[in-house]
Automatic annotation (TrEMBL):
SUPFAM superfamilies: Terpenoid synthases. Its EC number is 2.5.1.30. Keywords: Magnesium, Metal-binding, Transferase. Its cofactor is Mg(2+). Coiled coil: none annotated. It comes from the Bacteria. Pfam families: polyprenyl_synt. GO terms for molecular function: heptaprenyl diphosphate synthase activity. This is Heptaprenyl diphosphate synthase. Signal peptide: none annotated. Belongs to the FPP/GGPP synthase family.
């Protein structure tokens, strides 16, 4: 078996004993995910394995396990809950790629490109069904929470495809999308871990709020990195969202500007930037714009507000890991 110190974790964990428990838990979750995606239809199994094996941080199941350590520790229900949230996340990615007509996911061909949209949708549906099947083992309360989470996740996906309501601010609309698509499931991840490890209600509530805030902040920090980081640092081509006309925190903050000097930037941001020269100009203008600093401050404030919720969590390596992760989010926007 791979030594615990050689297994990467999605969260910063300094304490050796805690890290050992989390690594062992994640190895068990990986085995269960592999078993749960198997279908009698071989092509569905193959399609599900495609994305499961393509990598990913496994941040959501990791957070389930870490939150459980704030209580009585990792147990059978915690491991099941960790599998539930990752299967739900994987399912959403298949459907997301169909909606976005994406060519790549985690550096590999997306399922809709490798096969077709029908296979990608069926694979996503299969994973959702498996996550629901596992949730049923956790009891009625978990089923209710999963249903509410799924509703928010799908609503976020729907809102992403729709224009804001008349009079609704573009940025407020976008933050609702991020909260639904990303924050909701990460909040449930922390909630499940705390619930199924016997944490008191005030700790469950605090970790749920923490998950919502760090999950939202994590997505928003990606928005900033897309514009502000070089490819050799972030591993992504700078300005990808800009090129595709995808709204992000900094660009929406820039669009709020009424300064006449920003007229050219507002013009460039009004449509996808497929022309290289226009894209380069917009990227340079965005990097120099005060909206970048405003976006960084917003993410820092969100991360700090997540940390503030942890006052009810006992002092120790678990709380420190949660604080450190929020700190990583705040600094990764630089």
């Amino acid at each position: 078996m791979t030594p615990a110190q050689d297994v990467p974790l999605a969260l910063p964990v300094v304490d050796a004993a805690l890290r050992e428990r989390l690594v062992r838990g994640m190895l068990t979750v990986e085995e269960r995910l592999e078993a749960e995606i198997r279908s009698e239809a071989d092509f569905i199994t193959e399609a599900c394995r495609h994305l499961l094996h393509a990598g990913g941080k496994r941040f959501r199941p990791m957070l389930v396990l870490l939150a459980a350590e704030a209580g009585e520790g990792i147990n059978e229900d915690v491991l099941t809950a960790a599998s539930v949230v990752e299967l739900t996340h994987l399912a959403s990615l298949y459907h997301d790629d169909v909606m976005d007509e994406a060519d790549l996911r985690r550096g590999a061909d997306s399922a809709n490109v490798r096969w077709d949209n029908h296979v990608a949708i069926l694979a996503g549906d299969w994973l959702f069904s498996k996550s629901s099947e596992l949730t049923a083992r956790l009891g009625a309360e978990a089923v209710r929470i999963q249903a509410e989470t799924f509703s928010r996740l799908v609503e976020g996906q729907i809102l992403e495809t729709r224009e804001p309501r008349p009079g609704e601010d573009l940025l407020d609309h976008y933050l609702r999308v991020v909260g639904g698509k990303t924050g909701s499931l990460i909040a449930t991840s922390a909630r499940y871990g705390a619930m199924f490890s016997g944490c008191p209600p005030e700790v469950v509530a605090a970790l749920t709020g923490y998950g919502e805030r760090v999950g939202t902040a994590f997505q928003l920090s990606d928005d900033i990195l897309d514009l502000g980081s070089d490819s050799d640092v972030s591993g992504k081509t700078p300005g990808t969202d800009l090129r595709e006309g995808v709204p992000t925190l900094p660009t929406l903050m820039a669009l709020r500007s009424t300064d006449p000097a920003d007229a050219r930037l507002r013009e460039l941001l009004s449509a996808p930037l497929t022309d290289d020269a226009r894209h380069a100009e917009a990227l340079a203008l965005m990097r120099a714009h005060p909206a970048m600093g405003e976006a960084r401050r917003y993410v820092l404030q969100l991360a700090n507000s997540a940390i503030d919720l942890l006052t009810v969590v006992p002092e120790g390596p678990v709380k420190q890991a949660l604080v450190d992760f929020a700190g990583v989010i705040a600094t990764r926007t630089a």
